Model the fold of this input.
Amino acid sequence: MKTRSAQNGVTYTTGKLARRAGVNLQTIRYYERSGLLPAPERNESGYRQYTENALVRIRFIKKAQTLGFSLKEIQELLRLRADENSQCKEVRELVASKIEELSERIIELKNAQATLQGLLKETDDATPAPECPFLVELEKQAALAG
Done:
């Protein structure tokens, strides 16, 4: 439920914030425990009262996650955002590192896709599952890895 606070403007309870941000309650509590989201003020009844800034921060975190950033990396981005003495150069270095990591991951995914496509071509619908080339190859690779 939205309430008005004389000092902070519009505030949200945990449930309302979760709905507005598109996350569950446990996510909000986890973000608080991990320091990604500052602990909110509480009303007279002890209920958490989040400001619009909390909503923006959660959306920032979720967007950064969709770009491939880990929560640890997001914490660093938030730290840089709040630090008036930090420089854009630091942000650029983090972003460049993420681009490199994503490029490597894309190569890995393309290799996995090619492997799967090759194995799929070898698969015959009439072959019994225990003899399915995909399962046989996966088991072979698992045995070699260990």
Summary: The chain has two domains: 1-86, 101-146.
